Amino acid sequence: RTHGTRVHGCAGESEQGVSGRLNTWRNNHLAMGPGSEEHLLALINDVRDISKLAAGQLNVAASPVESRPLSEKAVRTVRPLADGKTLSLDLEIAPEAGTVIADSRRVEQVLLNLLSNAIKFTEQGSVRVRCTVEGPWVRIGVTDTGIGIEKEYRERLFKPFTQIETGLARKYEGTGLGLSISKRLVTLMGGEITVESEPGRGSTFSFTLPRERSGS
After folding, report:
1. Could you give the CA distance from residue 60 to residue 119 in angstroms, rounded to a whole number?
2. Chain Cα centroid distance, residue 172
3. Long-range residue pairs from 112-115, CB within 8 A, at least 24 positions apart, any chain
């Protein structure tokens, strides 16, 4: 009980200045009972990140990072989720992908968000991570065989609370903030994030990171 009270209070503090739609989401999940605490904690973390990003207070510390171990770690982290749904989870890394210039913690955050979403919205089939090279960039893509995304929603995906607005949250848990945070983090690291999708066939979310510093 004490722990639940602390979470509730912290959520109240974290959501100040954020859209009122957050209150509805939070109250709905509180009504679900004890099992909703993990969703509240995820909400708190997302709101803190989006608030810091909006205020220009979230920085990235770019340094040379090996793409292979970073990708392998993310895949290991979510593998239990994929196994729980009997999904194939594969990783393919181009030998020349090598080192990127990025904040390893933030890259992991983005990749885990994309992987978690892919697994969440895929009921059967597979999720695949591919690291490829495009000139001075490394592209990390996550492809799934999930529900796909209607064209009308794709442009809005990277805006806060889009998942709630589209109604997807009725079946799949989520704050609707993860992709917005991911886009801003990737931009801060000098890359871009894109999505390709076909309803009923799946989606590919990918982002780029620089292979070397400009002028180096």
Report:
1. 27
2. 14
3. 112/74, 112/77, 112/78, 113/178, 113/179, 113/181, 113/182, 114/142, 114/182, 114/205, 114/207, 115/74, 115/75, 115/77, 115/78, 115/142
Q: Give the mean pLDDT of the chain.
A: 77
* CB crowding 121-140: b at 16 or more within 10 Å, else e: bbeeebbbbbbbeeeebbbb
3-state helix, strand, coil in the chain (%, to 5): 45, 20, 30
Are 185 and 109 in contact by the 8 Å Cβ rule? The answer is yes
Q: Does the CA dihedral 112-113-116-117 come out positive or negative?
A: negative
Find tokens 């180096």 and name the residue.
Answer: 216
Q: What is the pTM of this model?
A: 0.74
